[in-house]
Automatic annotation (TrEMBL):
It comes from the Bacteria. Its EC number is 4.3.3.6, 3.5.1.2. The gene is pdxT. The active site is at 79 (nucleophile), 173 (charge relay system), 175 (charge relay system). The lineage of its organism: Bacteria, Bacillati, Actinomycetota, Actinomycetes, Micrococcales. HAMAP family: PdxT. It comes from Brevibacterium spongiae. This is Pyridoxal 5'-phosphate synthase subunit PdxT. In the presence of PdxS, forms a dodecamer of heterodimers. Only shows activity in the heterodimer.
Length: 194
């Protein structure tokens, strides 16, 4: 059976765990490096990226995760998870704390506005026949993507879902709502038929 972890330092990890459960996938919370053992994939949830990097600082969690990503572990970062995976930020708003990197994109934090500016919009996602209702909450914006990064979905001409080899990143929260298709697409890459 495929086993997918969800980084559970802070944020919307419970919602991702529920989605994975709805798809019949074994999942578990990841808060320490030893929780990464025997995983087939990992989701980095939305939430507060500053809190996540501060909680992880002083541990070996990110160092071990970088090793596993380099070895091919599939990872999907949503909203704050995208910020953790981005190779570049438009500013140093995380105060120099260690991030993961591994996704050749430049990201601007909170670029879609404050909490009151949150919105849901239909997006066309590669591989899906019907639009996906994407929820953007204080969302990061992908400013640019390197040549090896595939854009899977865009909103108003700006990439919002990208993939580079085994690393996925999305500006929105696919775990909010009842539509399981984004999670199913990620799991399909793990060889899971859902």
């Amino acid at each position: 059976m495929v086993r997918v972890g969800v980084l559970a330092l802070q944020g919307a990890f419970r919602e991702h765990l529920l989605m994975l459960g709805s798809l019949g996938v074994e999942s578990r919370k990841v808060t320490r490096s030893e929780h990464l053992a025997d995983l087939d994939g990992l989701i980095l949830p939305g939430g507060e990226s500053t809190a996540m990097v501060r909680i992880a600082s002083g541990t070996d969690l990110f160092a071990r995760l970088r090793e596993l990503m380099a070895a091919g572990l599939p990872v999907f970062g949503t909203c704050a998870g995208l910020i953790l995976l981005a190779d570049r930020l438009s500013d140093d708003s995380l105060g120099g704390y260690e991030r993961l990197g591994g996704l050749d994109v430049t990201v601007a934090r909170n670029a879609y506005g404050r909490q009151r500016d949150s919105f849901t919009a239909p997006i066309d996602v590669a591989g899906l026949s019907d639009p996906f209702q994407a929820t953007f909450i204080r969302a990061p914006q992908i400013l640019d993507a390197g040549p090896g990064t595939e854009v899977l979905a865009a909103h108003e001409g700006r990439a919002v879902l990208v993939r580079q080899n085994n690393v996925w990143g999305g500006s929105f929260h696919p775990e909010l709502g009842q539509d399981l298709r984004i999670h199913a697409e990620f799991l399909h890459r793990l060889g899971v038929a859902v």
